[in-house]
């Protein structure tokens, strides 16, 4: 057992929660559109850990059938998270593409400047 | 042979057609592919509804992997009518799209419009048809990502901001949803919705399950624009191309409501959600707030698309109100209002699309006298507007009748009173447009313009006629909604 596990049982869940909250905080608190997307990505990534943690069995092998190994980790969470990673990448790519277009159209990616009344109400 | 694979084809056809249009990337050819693909969908969904009515629930094992291990496509009395609704809307809007897209989107991007449109249709149908919690997430994201692009294609540069804002909120919603699914999966080891429900019965520690319920409820509420979580919707609907707005307003939020119903009744079970948890008062508060606040905000909008968007938020309030009551009549009311509101809002936004094509005007003050220069379009608008208010003889009356009956059955006369009062606010914002459009001298802006393409007017009127037909003969829609409500309340047998 690592010392971290002794200090804090189920520490991986605490890390998940920490990542999740900090990601969400960045999305809410930052006005820069790229930074917001970084926060969003962090928020999504924390979910990967949430899925993978319960699937791991201490002392288990990767989920490949082989002689002499009886205990292996659950394969399904890994497959699900591969799909979720693809979704996350697609979202981030689209978000960044939109940011580029916004920069071209408005000359800024700061929300303070973009949500001025003269832009939102013509 | 092919009948047995209809559930898979219904999703595969639009997704494959999207690939073709992406390869063609040329306005007219892409349009033809999209047109043909979209019209094959109602044929398939009606065949599925017929099969479901005759033989009961259809279970389709995707790739022949037997559920609950494999992904199951499951068509029962709840989602079969939704499939018909979404596929018909997809086909009608595709028919309408050509001229409007040509005028509103620059030619190099027109081919891409049809690609993302087909992806969006495929994603929405996938959410409806799947019986797998994680598969629903993937389809939800396919449709959402396509929706962000559809919105960003709008002519106004603020469409980009609307799309970005929706992307952030939509992704937060989807991620909360997937957190909920992860918690359920950790507790039950299953992703099949029916199978999860069977496993939940044997669980001793309920806390993770309740956390999952909270995550999923909030996540889906963001997607369906439940009142305080609706901020993305008005801008998105106002700046998206007219065709995209008409399609999204009549399908996207409805599909999210369907997913919420699935979770409340099929996955978690009505007993856990409504008996043991205070979901009813929570939903009631937000629904009533939506009905009043969003309607009042709609009255003061200067932009007709934004006015209709706020009205959508209010109408979603009526739908969630029916869900909150959670009785047979309440649910039937919610479901029938889902179908009816899709027809009404579809008609209204299609009529607005005609106006924008003809005159380029979407400010309410520029619409003076438009009823005299475009009488047929505005007549369709008025018919659907009456439906929004809930005048007898239109579909809106049928759904309000169900909802008021459901409230009175519970002895909540104050709620029935609120439904009637908030409908009166709709009289104000619809009446304002009618007054400006019909009782003022035509302004210079609206007198310009040539003939409206026949297919645009035709589709608008087909929809307007449907709002009257299903208002006079409610047997069919109300019958389907009542069956669906029975299935939901009975749980899965």
How is this structure best summarized?
The complex is a heterodimer of chains A (about 120) and B (about 500). Chain A has about 120 residues and is mainly alpha-helical.
Describe the model:
The complex is a heterodimer of chains A (122) and B (493). Chain A is mainly α and 122 residues long. Chain A has one domain (2-114): Helix Hairpins. Chain A has helices at residues 3-7, 11-29, 33-55, 76-106, 111-114, 117-120. Chain A is elongated and about 70 Å long. The termini of chain A are far apart. Chain B has helices at residues 6-24, 27-55, 79-104, 107-129, 133-152, 158-188, 193-200, 207-224, 232-239, 242-267, 270-275, 279-299, 304-325, 328-359, 370-373, 375-389, 395-409, 413-438, 444-447, 454-472, 475-490; strands at 58-61, 72-75. In chain B, strands 1-2 form a two-stranded antiparallel sheet. The model of chain B has no long low-confidence stretch (mean pLDDT 92). The A-B interface holds A 20, 24, 27, 33, 36, 40, 43-44, 47, 50-51, 54, 76-77, 80, 83-84, 87, 90-91, 94-95, 98-99, 101-102, 105-106, 114-115, 119-120 and B 134, 137-138, 141, 145, 148-149, 152, 157-158, 160-161, 163-164, 167-168, 171-172, 174-175, 178-179, 182-183, 185-186, 191.
Structure keywords:
heterodimer, A: 122 residues, mainly alpha, Helix Hairpins, 0% strand, elongated, B: 493 residues, two-stranded antiparallel sheet, 21 helices, 2 strands
């Amino acid at each position: 057992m690592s010392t971290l596990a002794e200090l804090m049982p189920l520490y991986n869940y605490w890390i998940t929660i920490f990542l999740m909250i900090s990601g969400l905080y960045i999305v809410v608190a930052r006005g820069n559109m790229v930074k917001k997307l970084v926060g969003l990505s962090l928020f999504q990534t924390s979910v990967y850990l949430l899925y993978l943690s319960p699937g791991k069995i201490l002392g288990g092998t990767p989920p490949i059938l082989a002689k002499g190994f009886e205990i292996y980790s659950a394969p399904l969470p890994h497959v699900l998270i591969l799909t979720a990673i693809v979704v996350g990448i697609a979202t981030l790519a689209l978000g960044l593409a939109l940011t580029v277009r916004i920069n071209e159209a408005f000359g800024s990616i700061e929300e303070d400047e973009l949500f001025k009344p003269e832009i939102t109400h013509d | 042979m092919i009948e047995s694979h209809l559930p898979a084809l219904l999703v595969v056809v639009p997704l494959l057609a999207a690939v073709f249009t992406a390869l063609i990337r040329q306005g007219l050819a892409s349009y033809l592919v999209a047109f043909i693909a979209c019209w094959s969908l109602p044929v398939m969904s009606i065949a599925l509804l017929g099969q479901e009515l005759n033989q009961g629930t259809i279970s389709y094992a995707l790739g022949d992997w037997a559920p609950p291990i494999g992904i199951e496509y499951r068509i029962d009395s709840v989602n079969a009518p939704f499939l018909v609704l979404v596929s018909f809307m997809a086909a009608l809007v595709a028919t309408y799209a050509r001229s409007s897209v040509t005028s509103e989107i620059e030619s190099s991007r027109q081919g891409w419009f049809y690609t993302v449109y087909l992806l969006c249709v495929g994603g929405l149908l996938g959410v409806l048809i799947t019986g797998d919690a994680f598969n629903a997430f993937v389809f939800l994201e396919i449709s959402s990502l396509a929706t962000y692009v559809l919105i960003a294609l709008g002519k106004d540069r603020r469409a980009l901001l609307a799309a970005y804002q929706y992307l952030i909120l939509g992704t937060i919603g989807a991620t909360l949803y997937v957190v909920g699914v992860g918690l359920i999966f950790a507790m039950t080891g299953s992703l099949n919705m029916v199978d999860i429900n069977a496993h939940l019965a044997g669980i001793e520690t309920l806390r993770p399950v309740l956390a999952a319920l909270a995550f999923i409820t909030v996540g889906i509420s963001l997607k369906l624009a439940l009142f305080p979580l609706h901020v993305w919707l008005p801008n998105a609907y106002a700046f998206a191309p007219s065709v995209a707005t008409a399609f999204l307003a009549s399908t996207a939020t409805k599909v999210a409501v369907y997913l919420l119903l699935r979770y409340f009744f099929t996955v978690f079970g009505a007993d856990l959600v409504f008996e043991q948890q205070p979901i009813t008062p929570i939903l009631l508060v937000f629904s009533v707030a939506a009905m009043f606040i969003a309607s009042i905000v709609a009255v003061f909008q200067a932009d007709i698309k934004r006015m209709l968007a706020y009205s959508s938020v209010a109408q979603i309030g009526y739908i969630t109100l029916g869900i909150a009551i959670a009785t047979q009549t309440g649910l039937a009311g919610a479901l029938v209002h889902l179908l009816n509101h899709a027809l009404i809002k579809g008609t209204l936004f299609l009529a607005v699309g005609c106006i924008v094509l003809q005159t380029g005007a979407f400010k309410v003050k520029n619409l003076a006298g438009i009823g005299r220069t475009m009488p047929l379009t505005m007549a369709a608008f008025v018919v659907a507007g009456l439906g929004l208010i809930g005048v007898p003889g239109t579909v809106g009356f049928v759904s309000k009748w169900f909802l008021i009956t459901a409230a009175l059955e519970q002895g909540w006369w104050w709620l029935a009173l609120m439904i009637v009062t908030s409908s009166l606010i709709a009289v104000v914002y619809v009446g304002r447009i009618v007054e400006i459009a019909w009782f003022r001298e035509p302004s210079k802006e609206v007198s310009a313009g040539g003939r409206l393409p026949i297919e645009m007017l035709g589709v608008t009127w087909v929809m307007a006629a449907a709002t009257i037909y299903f208002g006079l003969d409610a047997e069919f829609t109300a019958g389907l909604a009542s069956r669906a409500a029975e299935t939901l309340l009975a749980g899965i047998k």
